Amino acid sequence: MSEHAGPVALASPLRSFRALFASVRIRLILLVLLVLAPAFGLLVYVADRERENGKDDVREKALYLARLAAAEQSQIVQVTHSKLQYLATAPETRGAGNGACDALLAREIKSHPYFDNLGVLGPDGIRFCSVLQPDQKVDLSDRTYFRRALETRQFSIGDFQIGKSSGKPSIGFGYPALDANGAVRGVVYATLNLDWIGQSLARKQLPPEAALSVIDNQGTMLARFPANDELIGKPIAPAVLREILMHQGDGTLDGAGSTGARLVWGYVPLLEGPSGSLIVRVSIPVGTAYVRVEQTYYRNLLFIALTAMGVMFIAWVGSERLIMRPVQALNTTVQRLRRGEYGVRTGAKYAEGELGELARAFDNLAAALQDREEAQREYLALIEQSAGKDKLLRLFYDLPFVGLAVTSPTSKRWLQVNDRMCEMLGYPRDELMALAWTEITHPDDLAANMALFQRMAAGEFDAFQFDKRFLRKDGGIVDTTMECQCMRHRDGSIETVVIMVQDITERKRSEAALKRAFDDLQQQAITDPLTGLYNRRFLYEVLPRELARAGRNKIAVAVMMMDIDHFKRVNDTYGHEAGDLVLKEIARTIKTTLRASDICCRYGGEEISVVLPEAPVDGARMRAEVLRAAIEKLEVEGPGQKRIRVTISIGVAVYPGHGTNADALLRAADEALYEAKGAGRNRVVVKSASDAASNQDKSPTFSLSAQSPQP
User: For the chain, what is the total number of helices (H) and then of strands (E)?
Assistant: First the structure.
């Protein structure tokens, strides 16, 4: 398979795609759709809003039902609160073993059938007074309502429980009883019969598909309507509970129920506070609630799609009769005129409108071109009879190294070309003269060339010079410098344009090669030839720029100075060739370990410096430790397959804390390096903050001056 098969195969569909969208009919349909797009967009927006409004109505319905049910449950909680508050202050509830306390509680529970039990606990949680089993002392210190009442000294709500006296599922409420000094002397409690809550919920007028329930703040379901004993006392989905508790107060949410079905919930808290809470929740299945909303939404979208298809069909059929046929007829006439049939006419009726005006303008243009062609033939006949003709022909053929041509200012066609022009562009003379110079000008140069030509035609100047590219017949490109000189009629209009063209392709290639060579030399000037790292010269150029940028942007820049520990031993033991190999491997490890934005330079000998843009102290220390550990693990194969291992010491300084200019920062990093070597080598030392201020004032041991040391 040819190596060009891939690009050609890709180019063919691309040309077909471009040709499709070049069609006037397609553009007309696109224009119609573009005009109607806002209307279609508005219809889609309205349909979407109706959909969302329908969903909002379902959510509001769920929240309304939850609020309605919560109102009655809230009354029970408030009655319980008031009753316990009264009993906490009653004299009968103050002493253990007091028969009057049992009698008081027995009378009170008769008027509140939704209570399973009423009782009083001592501060240790031992029950000494109760309606149920009044003679038994029961330890209820583990009940959450008891602990919360002691902690908060407020009315408290407990969790789902099985009563120790009643043996029934219930929920407890507690209220602290205080003595004269404000100390807790006990807790009065009541247990609420969950069956009563279920009967209360059953009285609500719920839709057939809805369910109403009461849960505590642990997510335990206390009551439900319609009744479902399997769910009572069981926790709801943790994700649903988190959402309810996260959004304090009432609200709605969508999610999956215990069976996995999608539901819409409306929830309302009965009581919120540190003592616990109850939540009333109404659930409506999404499939039932949203079915009508979704049906309406998709019906509206179908209507919009059908309307768009109808508009496209009308535009397609109408464009064929009203636009495409006249345009195709006009295009056929244009092609005949292009082939030189100047007597051709459209033959169209000049009706009102743009197409009629276009046909009239085209016929007028064809008549003008026919007149111009006849005048041109007469002009050339006069040229051939004059001595100037001989001089012009000699000029064409006596200068084989320069392309010369004469062009028409209106058609832009070549009226005469010499041999060099044909050779330069790769066309036979008859083919070249059948073309206009605009057709073989590189597309990127055509606009500038036409602008100069139009300015010359307007009389701003009579000649201009322009570097441009011509397209050869074989598809190649010729770089040229072109000089144009116009010859004018007495009225100032251009008669002909004489063009002189020189091929500067080789010069352009030489200039490009020279630029590449210069770039290579420049790269060599800033690169260390052994390690491939940047050299010290480049460090002196780049570090001040990085510090200036860091100062403008208020960011940190770190500098690492590192030295290979005992590198002289490597050279003495294995030879300098092995030492060079160690330097190369360490340089490779540094470049692969650090970030691409970090700048690594060979400072000299076995010393290497690294500039870390946007690196604070902790980040610089971390990267230095990673680099030190990577070098410590490095093994280099030396002479005789001996394994050479080395370590490095690293000093780190960070702008602006350790230095506000390049000299001070490099000096601080160098001092930190010497501290690392003095501390035993193979370690990282960050310049201490206490030395930073004095380091700013020291005289520089070296300077980033124009006289930079050689790499």
Answer: 20, 22
**How far, in Å, CA of 260 to CA of 386, rounded?**
101
| Residue that wins the pLDDT comparison between 322 and 405 | 405
Considering only the C-alpha atoms of the chain, give the largest distance between any 2 of them, rounded to a whole number of Å. Answer: 148
Q: Which residue has the tokens 């330079």?
A: 601
In the chain the first and final C-alpha atoms are separated, in Å, by 51
| DSSP-assigned letters across all residues of 132-199 | SSTT---B-TT-HHHHHHHHH-S-EEEEEEE-TTT-SEEEEEEEEEE-TTS-EEEEEEEEEEHHHHHH
In angstroms, the CA 201 to CA 396 distance is 109
Main-chain phi, psi angles of 440, to 5 degrees? -115, 15
Cβ atoms of 468 and 459 within 8 Å: the answer is no
Quote the CA–CA distance of 210 and 285 in Å, as a whole number.
7
Tens digit of each residue's pLDDT (9 = 90 or more) over 526-583:
788 888 899 888 898 899 999 999 999 999 999 999 999 999 988 888 888 888 899 9
Name every residue whose Cβ is closer than 8 Å to that of residue 599 and which is 6 or more positions away in sequence: 534, 538, 539, 542, 546, 610, 611, 613
Give the list of residues 6+ apart from residue 402 with CB closer than 8 angstroms, or none: 420, 500, 501, 502
pLDDT digits (tens, 9 = 90+) for 470-513: 999 998 999 999 999 998 888 888 888 989 898 888 888 877 77
The phi, psi pair for 206, rounded to 5°, reads -95, 150
- What distance lies between CA 520 and its chain's CA centroid? 37
pLDDT tens-digit readout, 431-481: 998 899 899 999 999 999 999 999 998 889 999 998 999 999 998 999 999
8 A C-beta contact, residue 407 and residue 484: no
Q: How far apart are CA 465 and CA 586, in angstroms?
A: 57
What's CA 240's distance to the chain center, in Å? 31
Q: Cα separation of 12 and 176, whole Å?
A: 88
CA distance 263 to 246: 19
DSSP string, 474-517: TS-EEEEEEEEEEEE-TTS-EEEEEEEEEE-HHHHHHHHHHHHH
**Spatial separation of the C-alpha atoms in residues 658 and 685, rounded to whole Å:** 13
Give the residue from 404, 429, 415 showing the smallest Cα distance to 373. Answer: 415
pLDDT in tens, 76-123: 788 888 888 888 888 888 766 668 888 888 888 888 877 888 888 888
Under 8 Å between Cβ of 105 and 131: yes
Instruction: Give dist(CA 150, CA 183) in Å, integer.
Output: 10
Q: Strand pairing of 251-256 and 221-225?
A: unpaired
User: Rounded to the nearest 10 degrees, how much is the dihedral formed by the CA atoms of 224, 226, 231, 232?
Assistant: 40
**682 and 631 Cβ atoms separated by less than 8 Å:** no
Question: In whole angstroms, what is the distance from residue 64 CA to residue 282 CA?
Answer: 9
Question: How many other β-carbons are positioned within 10 Å of the β-carbon of residue 687?
Answer: 26
Q: Confirm if 68 and 204 have CB atoms less than 8 A apart.
A: yes
Q: Looking up tokens 């008027």, which residue turns up?
A: 111
Do residues 194 and 232 touch, judged by C-beta distance below 8 A? yes
φ/ψ (deg, to 5) at 505: -60, -45
DSSP calls for 562-595 = EEETTHHHHHHHH-HHHHHHHHHHHHHHHHHHS-
In sequence order, what are the residues at sequence separation of 6 or more whose Cβ sits closer than 8 angstroms to the Cβ of residue 107? none
Paired tokens of 547: 């510090």
pLDDT of residue 204 exceeding 70, the answer is: no
